[in-house]
Amino acid sequence: MHLTSLGPKPSPIPIQIHLKTSQQTAFRKTPTGFNLANPLLLLSHQAASVMGGGQKRGRTQRRHFKQNRDNVWKHNPNKAPPAAHPSGGPTVENPTEENPTWQPFATQNPGFDEYYKEQRIVGQKEWDEFISTLRKPLPAAFRINASAQFSEDIRSQLEKEFAKSLEAEANNENGEKAIRPLPWYPGNLAWQLNFSRMQLRKNQALERFHEFLKQENEIGNITRQEAVSMVPPLFLNVLPEHHILDMCAAPGSKTFQLLEIIHGCTKPGQLPDGLVIANDVDVQRCNLLIHQTKRMSTANLIVTNHEAQHFPGISMGGDGQVEKSQLLFDRVLCDVPCSGDGTLRKAPDIWRKWNAGMGNGLHCLQVAIAMRGLALLKVGGRMVYSTCSMNPVENEAVVAEILRRCEGSVELLDVSNELAGLVRRPGLKTWKVRDRGSWFTTYKDVSVQRRSAIVQSMFPSGQSWKETVNEGAMNHLTEGSVNEEPRESDASAKLGEMEVSVLQLERCMRIVPHDQNSGAFFIAVLQKISPLPANHSINKQTKSKQRDGGRMSAKLEEESEIQKAESVLEINTDSKIIEQNTETISEKKDQEAVPLSDNNDSKIIEEKTETISEKKDQEAVPLSDNNDENGVQIGKTDNRKRKLQMQGKWRGVDPVVFFTDETIINSIITFYGVSANFPLAGHLVTRNDESTNVKRIYYVSRSVREILELNLQVGQRLKITSLGLKIFERQTVKDEAACAYRISSEGLQLIFPYLTKQILYAPFSDFEHLLKYRAVKFVDFVDSTLGQKASALLPGCCVVVLHQVGNNSTDLKADASTIAIVCWKGKSNLSIMVSPSDAKELLERLEIRLGKKDVTASVKVLEESVLLEDDSVVPPHDVEPVNTTENMEEEVTI
Ligand SMILES: C[S@@+](CC[C@H](N)C(=O)[O-])C[C@H]1O[C@@H](n2cnc3c(N)ncnc32)[C@H](O)[C@@H]1O
Question: Under a CB-based contact definition with an 8 Å cutoff, are residues 24 and 137 in contact?
Fold first, then answer.
């Protein structure tokens, strides 16, 4: 990464940016493509993944996921070069000039036009504007992480600096601003650019801003996210104490937003009472989510890997002796897999793939996921159902069906007075269903053969035509319907045979692209006002097991298909596992409908085996100690056959173990002088139950700890792929006086206020040198007392705190403005244990704060010292026994 443009603007290039987005295009390079190492591409993968649902779709999802769908150009090697552009040179708007074999994706699909015209999601007069906006690239958008230490600095830099400098780059014919805060997002924290992501990448004049976005995104100070995708978490009205379930969470942009909200008012050294459980069925996408949310450094997150429609329900006690505790949530985000046609502007290959069957195929899964979400929601809690699709079969039809099934126990909320400034349209009350080229206005017209694919709940009334008429639903046809304009094609259809919903679906919200130059989205906000009817409640099909001599009863939810399949695999392939897991298997036997040893039903077994082999592929990245803390593989070993599989209930996933080794905990407390006010007991966990070998120790919040305890008591129903904040890491130390565990950078912010030993206070000059050169000899410190104090510390990990400007007292109280880094005290020098990107960011932010002119020069020195260090050629100072590169926070490349 190269930052050269912080000074004067680069010399003009022969590119004129026309902000009129009709002229914007994006293009991609295949087959090599852009790869996932670029975090900016994460968002396009979000779009790329929306299709698909259960296990069988796993591979397709992953295939889509690997493709960059940000672009409207594709490569055609056989295509003759187009005529030269009159300007004589390549432009951002005309990538074919750069590479004559590029040609645009077709941004049209007659089936799409016909479908949405018929559904009348926009009025006839608006159609042209709607469709032409859909064909334009999506303006880039991002969010400042409100809980980041430098969020104020970043907002101010945007408002004061970039808003002006970008304006100068824009040749804006429509008077639109080059960059503006989204009016509906609180606190000027979300911004929309009038440039597409392609323009940002390709235009040299925007290079500095692009670098800024990349760097801040990597650090976690900002998150690049489509504007409309930021809406659902806002409608959840989250409070810091809420327990939140994000049912289909990967790649995690909304999870990150939810975590930001619960951490909003947290002071250093404190944790909020709330937590987020982020779940996704796809283990690889879970890893992406973990990578994304790692930037948040939170102890209040659990990542799980379940089919959302079978998310385990856990309840404990209730026998009078033990207080009943249940895993229920104050808030549920149900951002379900969908056809994704609302993301056409950033994923234009959907134009080619789109067909009406995509939405139909997902409807039942969407209903099942939403119903499970409502079952897991506390009475009084809110659930947001959302999709990035415009299709009523995936939207209003799903909401209508869950309202019907809940029989009045759930209310669709009118949130029209929330998020002022967000332009949204009311939900539809009537729509049609398309199947194999035919339109159906009522379920009764669907042939018997097609009734397995086209179900009643896809229709507005969700009932047979006869029932609809009896209920007088037709009276509502023109009452407040959104799509009230007469249908041309309705002339042939008998009005009396059309279905219409009697539910208040106008309370749903549809965001369409041309209202505020965005993508499309659908959102419904639901509140649970009483327990669900018995057949939909959380304890449906539960089995009771007597535990602890019958004192407690653990009600276990029905096994999901995956779990059953795994049992089959265990029994058929690994006798060792059978031996070790006899209890688990016999428990499962009780619960399962699938005969485990009986081959009578070979079909079932075949189906299961298919699921298993898919799952095997997915789990090529086992979540074990050989992966980094995110479950992203960092070693070469295929761990699938590791013994660890036998330790946990979930194949390929290391068990979560409370870390209770008192010798190690006490050594940490003594070495760092950890105050008794910082609760360690019961808050430390590992993924490896051999305590002598524990490499990383994670800290979990009280709320997470309680869920872990509950989960352990009921036999580990939750398949946890990641949790906790990495706080300590094992360190190879030669000196016996040193502690074998160092504090990790992400853990420092939490534990720092409770440390009383191994702390140094540095003036800016020395702090700056540390960041720039990564290691400084004691004799080289500008502040010689600092050098002496550093030399007097015990060898090993220590913390260096920046003196607040003008304050040289060492009696500093940690507050939100305290800046501290983890270092290593060697024989003759101090070296930092901060990743190069974090060091760079910190250096820049500090120098900007202090009004230093030549930030670029400092960054250059830093980059050179990192290069030297990485190459291990000539370290800037004496080499310490600690390999700082190895000890640095691992840079995970996805
Ligand atoms: C629309 S995306 C979610 C986007 C995510 N909420 C965000 O903001 O980053 C849908 C996700 O659902 C997941 N998914 C598909 N079927 C699922 C199921 N049955 N249970 C849980 N997750 C599922 C997909 O893997 C995908 O990651």
Answer: yes
- Using CA atoms, how far apart are residues 818 and 828, in angstroms rounded to an integer? 27
Binding-site residues for S-adenosyl-L-methionine, please? 248-254, 280, 335
Distance (Å, whole) CA 541 – CA 587: 15
Q: Choose which residue among 49, 59, 248 to substitute to test ligand 1 binding: the one with the highest number of ligand atoms within 8 A of its C-beta.
A: 248
pLDDT value for 318: 58
CA–CA distance, 260 with 274 (Å, rounded to integer): 11
DSSP-derived 3-state class of residue 390: coil
Q: Kindly give the pairing relationship between strand 684-686 and strand 657-658.
A: antiparallel
Of all protein residues, the one whose alpha carbon is nearest to atom 9 of ligand 1 is 252
Give the DSSP per-residue string, 321-347: SS--EE--EEEEEEE-----GGGTTT-
So where are the chain's domains? 1-33+73-106+139-225, 744-894
Q: How far is the CA of 509 from the centre of ligand 1 (A)?
A: 20
Ligand 1 site, residue 386, Cβ cutoff 6 A = no
Q: Supply 740's token pair.
A: 């074998």
Residues 211/6, Cβ–Cβ less than 8 Å: no
Which of ligand 1's atoms lies nearest the C-alpha of 340? Answer: 1
Please state at what angle helix 836-849 crosses helix 207-219, rounded to 10 degrees: 120
Q: How far apart are CA 223 and CA 145, in angstroms?
A: 7
Classified as helix, coil or strand, 673 is coil
pLDDT at site 319:
58
- DSSP letter, residue 653: B
Question: 316: helix, coil or strand?
Answer: strand
pLDDT value at position 648? 55
**Looking at the predicted complex, does its ipTM rise above 0.90?**
yes
> Residues of the chain whose pLDDT is less than 70?
1-105, 169-175, 316-324, 464-497, 538-649, 689-692, 804-816, 852-894
